[in-house]
Amino acid sequence: MADEEFMSGDLFATVRVQDLPASREVVAVERQDDGAWRVCGSAIANADGIAELGLKGSNTSRVYAFAIDHWGEPFTPNRTVAYGDIIRPSVFLGWLYRVTDPGVLPSEEPAWWNSTPGMPRPVGSAMAQAEMYFQPIAHGPVDIEWEVKEGGDPHWDNVVSLLHFDGDLTDETGRIWTPIGSPAFADTAPMLDGEYLTQGGVANSDIILGAEDFTIECFFRVRSTPPMFIFLWDGRGAVGSDGPYPIVYMQGSDMILRNHVNNGTTGPNSSVAVALNTSYHFAHVRKSGVSTFYLAGVNVGSAEDATNYNLQTLNVAYTQSGSFGDFLDMDEFRITKGVARYTENFTPPTEPFPNFK
Q1: DSSP string of 295-311?
Q2: What is the pLDDT of residues 262-289, one digit of tens each?
Q3: What radius of gyration, in Å, describes the C-alpha atoms of the chain?
Q4: Is the separation of the CB atoms in 323 and 226 below 8 Å?
Q5: Domains in the chain and their CATH numbers?
Q6: What contacts 187, CB < 8 A, 6 or more positions away?
Q7: Residue 330 pLDDT grade (very low, low, confident, very high; cuts 50, 70, 90)
Q8: What is the C-alpha to C-alpha distance for residues 126 and 122, in angstroms, rounded to an integer?
Q9: Is 232 helix (H, G, I), strand (E, B) or coil?
Q10: How many angstroms separate the CA atoms of 76 and 166, rounded?
């Protein structure tokens, strides 16, 4: 589970040793749904025995809290020790020895003793007081009040690509894109000025959409009318090659919405005029064998589409001539595999797509 998928919560603990408040380390562990265990938080109780643990975990896990006693350091001949250091004998019999006066331990291990209240004894040139060791104490499962993340993506597990274009080509899913040309980010535009980005090869098999539902979407803005075809995305290995993969492109002042299969078209085949210097959200959604194009949240084309999209190549921000950024800006490119996010007209999102559940 990635860190961004964890929820936050708080655990308050009280530690008492022999019925008295004690400063001890408190550790919380969770047993996740898949049976895996992980530490989800820790803190040290204060002198009043109070600890507040900030947790990061899953709200479906079972959480257990452990109070851990000091374990000390093993006896080392001629070691210099300071006040408060804890020494553990080489043969452990349930007692530890806390240094009350600093000094140097002897060259040979002394005969250790049991606790005598208020009676430190010499250990070399140092003095130490015996303390009983207490095994870890556990409680649980304990109730945790988890904080619900606002604005998460319930379909984050299905996202196979998310590019914010915030000054770099970081894909929030960890996918590596190959820039073709020399991309550079313009000061006033969210999208890069370059030739295009590409994905290809067997390592990218998870972008194969198959016959499943899917959603491919982005924001775009037309700066100026392109003289030739300019593609928001194109799954063909080269222009004119066989598909299949959805393609969306600009031709003049019109946005052409089309699927490309075996050098032909299938599914929605629409042409929509778009205004210059206007930001639009666009989504290609397939739901139960029907593909629909949404521009600014409005259905602008729909048709049956049973295509098995089986290519592993995907080009984004592709142009046949010049730089993509000369004509269009792109922002918030996302592919969601197995989920049709939009099934009717909708209000487009206004915030960056989240990268957590």
Answers
A1: ETTEEEEEEE----B--
A2: 555 555 666 777 888 888 999 999 999 9
A3: 32
A4: no
A5: 3-68+136-147 (2.60.40), 73-132 (no CATH), 156-337 (2.60.120.200)
A6: none
A7: confident
A8: 6
A9: strand
A10: 55
Nearest to 4 by CA among 138, 174, 168, 163: 174
**Three-state SS for 120?**
coil
Is 31 exposed, middle or buried, given 0-12, 13-18 or 19+ CB atoms closer than 10 A? middle
**C-alpha closest to that of 242 among 222, 219, 223, 259:** 259
CA distance 37 to 14: 23
Distance, CA of 83 to CA of 128 (rounded, Å): 9
How far apart are the C-alpha atoms of 123 and 105, rounded to whole Å?
6
What is the percent of the chain with per-residue pLDDT over 70, rounded to a whole number? 76
Residue with tokens 């142009």: 319
Q: Indicate the SS3 state at residue 93.
A: coil
Measured CA to CA in angstroms, residue 216 lies from 10, 232, 286, 314 at distances of 38, 10, 9, 12
The answer to whether 40 and 57 have CB atoms below 8 angstroms apart is yes
| Tokens 């032909």 -> residue | 264
Is 335 strand, coil or helix?
A: strand
**Residue 119 burial class via C-beta count within 10 angstroms: exposed 0-12, middle 13-18, buried 19 and up:** exposed
This prediction has a pTM of: 0.58
d(CA 308, CA 22): 65
Q: Counting every residue, how long is the chain?
A: 357
DSSP 85: -
